Amino acid sequence: MIDIKLEHIVKKYTSDVIAVDDLSLNFEPGSFVCLLGPSGCGKTTTLRMISGLERANDGIITVGGEIFDAPKQNIFVRPEHRKLGLVFQSYALWPHMTVQENVDFGLKLKKISKEERCRIVDESLDLLRMGAYRKRYPAELSGGQQQRVALARMLAVQPGILLLDEPLSNLDAALRLEMRSELKSLHERLGSTIVFVTHDQLEAMSLATHVAVMNEGKLEQYADPMTIYLKPATEFVATFVGSPPMNMVGFSDSEGQRWKEPFKKAVAAFRQMDGNDKRISKVGFRAEAVTLQRSDDTLLLKQNQTCIKGRVKAVLPTGPEQIVSIVVDDDQFYVVTPPSHFFENGQAVDMVIDLTMIHMFDQNGLRV
Ligand code: ATP
């Protein structure tokens, strides 16, 4: 079990492209860490620095107690000496080798018996449902199949650290789900430290022991998935994680002086929940904090509830539930209801909000 430590890492591609900006993170041995964030936030660059494919401009990267990269101390361990398993979105399979030979390649370097190698190759290919394709060349495979071979090749050598950059991006929904559960049980079995890059928050939430949410090269929050979901440290995390995204009620003008009329009563109720009310700039509530009812039904608010009135803009059925989008002036909110609850476009509705489930943020977007 190996740990990874990033201390004040900076990566600049040019003077005006700072891909990673003073990033500090500790990956505990055996953890499954997802680097999560929007496109261009520096996830891949971080992974490439851990692997040694990219050099940091500043900071220290330590893996298993050994410094791999420390520009100020003039230390840099080359990627081939880092003994890490790597799978990138572009699979980098050897084009002149069959599937079987590709998976066997890393094992040959390990100098183990041929019989043992055959057993491991079979096992890895079976696990990734690629046994039937063993004699094919990469060019004869689909993108998703190539991705699975790349994963099998990495798993075969059982590295102590697995670095995965969107390794499931080319799989269809069913296979993706299956591979997620394979990866998760594999992690539990092997105990390897896994760093997994994704912009898919569902993937991160369902796989990781720890999630690092990044935005514009900086770390927004590093915590276990449920803490990220239930106690987002910043407004960015609150709106990036969760589907539908967290609803936000903000000030009405850029100076942050007035709350819009339809929200005034609710905000007064929100403020009662906060001992230090001056600091609140935005209030957030997730879809599950809201009970939706028609405005012509009798409204009976309990002590820990408040209400915002709006109109249905659209009803989006997903099967087991429906997402109802609601407009209040020019703001839009999302609520989830059972499919049996009938709402139609233009209908006047009351969003009854559970005040014990609200989130408050200050002017800098930090959780209050
Ligand atoms: P995605 O999810 O789209 O892959 P990402 O979060 O992995 O994005 P990075 O690929 O790490 O983001 O890129 C971070 C920033 O660095 C982006 O602004 C990107 O344009 C820039 N960048 C990445 N690679 C290079 C490069 N080789 N040269 C110059 N700029 C680069």
TrEMBL record:
Keyword ATP-binding on entry: yes
Residue stretches spanning the membrane: none
UniProt keyword Transport, yes or no: yes
Annotated InterPro entries: AAA+_ATPase, ABC_transporter-like_ATP-bd, ABC_transporter-like_CS, ABC_transpr_MalK/UgpC-like, Mo/tungstate-bd_C_term_dom, NA-bd_OB-fold, P-loop_NTPase
A cellular-component GO term for this protein: ATP-binding cassette (ABC) transporter complex, substrate-binding subunit-containing
Pfam families registered for this protein in UniProt: ABC_tran
EC number: 3.6.3.20
GO-annotated molecular function: ABC-type transporter activity; ATP binding; ATP hydrolysis activity
Segments forming a coiled coil: none
PANTHER family given in the database record: MALTODEXTRIN IMPORT ATP-BINDING PROTEIN MSMX, OSMOPROTECTIVE COMPOUNDS UPTAKE ATP-BINDING PROTEIN GGTA
This protein's name: Glycerol-3-phosphate-transporting ATPase
